Every structure is written in C-alpha cells, then in structure tokens.
What we know:
Blueprint: H1 3-21, H2 28-35, H3 39-45, H4 49-72, H5 78-99, H6 101-113, H7 116-139, H8 147-162, H9 164-169, H10 175-195
Helix pairs in contact: 1-2, 1-4, 1-6, 2-3, 4-5, 4-6, 4-7, 5-6, 5-7, 5-10, 6-7, 8-10
Amino acid sequence: MTPESADHRLLTIAEEHVRRFGVERLTVVAVARDAGMTHANVYRYFPSKTALADAVSAQWLRPLDALLTDAAAAPDPADDKLERMLVALAAALRDRAEAEPNLFRLFAEAFSDGRDVARRHRSRVRTLVERVVEEGIGSGTFPVKSRERALALVFDAAYRFVTPQPVETDRETSRRIWDNRALAAFGAAIRSLKAGSV
Length: 198
C-alpha cells in the first residue's frame, strides 16, 4: 500500500464516518479499525484527529473551490461574473448544509475555530472575488472611488450567505425565500459598484 492510497482510503473512511455518525463520533481508532490498521499507523499519515478532520474538510471543499475558480476565469463581464460566483458559492454551501449536514458541520467547526483548512478556503474565495472586482475596476464596469470599500461592500453583502454558521442557522428558512434574499443582497451590492457609489 503506497502512502497516497493509504491517505485516500483513510480519508474516504473518515468522511463516511462523519457522514453517518456525526462529527462527535469521528475517532482515529474507529477509522483505523475500518481501514484494517492500527491507530498508530493512522498517525503516520495524520498527526491528530483534528488533522484527519481537516483533511476530510479540504477534500470536501475541492469541488466548490474548482467551481469558483472556473467562474472567475470565465470571459463574462465582471458584474455578471461576480454575481454568478456569489450565487454559486451561496447555493453550493446551502445545498451541502442540507444534503450533508454532518460534513457541513465539520467544516463549520473548522471555520469557527479559525483552523488552516477554513482560512485557506476563505483566502481562495477572497482572492477570486478580489480578482473579479479588480477586473471590473480596470474595465470601468465598477467605477468605484475606493477598492477597499468596494470589497468590503461585497463581503458584507455576502456574509450571511457564504459563512457556515449563518448558512446553518438559516436552514430553517425556506429555500425560495433564502435564494431571493441572497439575490437581492448580491444585486444591491453589484448595482452600487456599477454606480460608483463606494
């Protein structure tokens, strides 16, 4: 068994444990047992339970990061691209909160604790949004007075819809209402950028 295949197998088992039993019941001993190895062997690949949990979250976030990267690279005008990115991110997080609540909670805990996996994800999102806002400023689509205020406006508008804790809390809100609120918030921010009012 190569280190790569062992990593993948352990992550797959750990992800399934979280999905089926919840965050609290994820243990290195149980993952090791299902992988047919000792828990000491698991620690060769992941130095702690937290490291294993964060590796599961990182794997779970990869498709979302790829979706945003593709959206940011599209040839659309900056205003359309920014709205599509924010809508895609919000919808993907809400979908995951509903379809995979235990895995979503695992990521939410990492986010709340400020762990590296969450900081890296937040940094990727910020970098991509900044890139699109800069593109809009450069093309004249966003004739803003202050780049920093423009970015603050976008992140303030998006906060409730792209941050794990509010997304999890808002699962009680109907999807139609939540989607409409997100579209209204994103649309207002983008209109302000296009009007140059920040």
